[in-house]
Amino acid sequence: MIRVLPSAFTLANLLCGFAAIFYASRMPGVDRLFPDTTPLTLAASLIFLGMLFDALDGRVARMTRQTSELGEQLDSMADMVTFGVAPAFLVIQMAGIGAPFFGLEGFDTFFDRGVLVIAATYVACCALRLARFNIEINLPGEADHLSFKGLPSPAAAGTVGALVLVHESLLVGMSLEFLDLAKAAVVAMLAIVLLTAIAMVSTMRYTHLLNRYVRGRAPFAYLATAVILMVPLLVFPQMTLAIAFTVYALSTPSSLLYAKLRNRTTPNVLATPLDEAPDSVDPALEYTTQADERA
Whole-model pTM? Predict the structure, then answer.
């Protein structure tokens, strides 16, 4: 039996991904509802809307006690479209590639091929990430949902979508002499997409922020921090989202690297190697020890 209310939120997430792909394929100025908004800006915004529906469907299912295996599979399919295919398609459209691997002059460059391969890698890694999550969700140690193995697909899509929003906001009104800077930003964006793809299939543990800091009763400091963080989000939404998602994506690798460097540079002064143990005892010390024992 299909659970209507949770499935409605899941399908809304799926349709947001479909709409993001559709608007990303439109030419600028085609949309009459948002004439001053670039298609990629609208498409990236729809990914974040899908992220909201994705966060609500599970909570609604648990609140109404309408969880089901069908809902779990439907959720993965929706996530694959919204957080896997849609962000990769946004990157392809932002890079403006031609027709790679078809040998057409001017449309089949190494750059075009590289962009397509990176986008395809992102889609494949997202599929592997979701499949692994479905298998390991009920394993011991995963049931508390306080952390994820690998970067979650919504976080990866949020990183890509937020950077697309920043790119489009800076591109509007940019003069011609800064077009080279915009092209360099696209290259940096491709590197970030590849790194997020690798992070999704890695075994690094990422904190589940909502379950760890929001679920249940939380200290007053958490609420105050959330209110303070809302201020830059309202004033500079694109840049704030980009910084927040990038920091989260880099949080675990940075922590692991810091811990590794710290263990390498900190000597263990408490441990004495066996090969450095004294072979003989100083006679004076031995005599003093024996005198103390007799006393």
Answer: 0.80
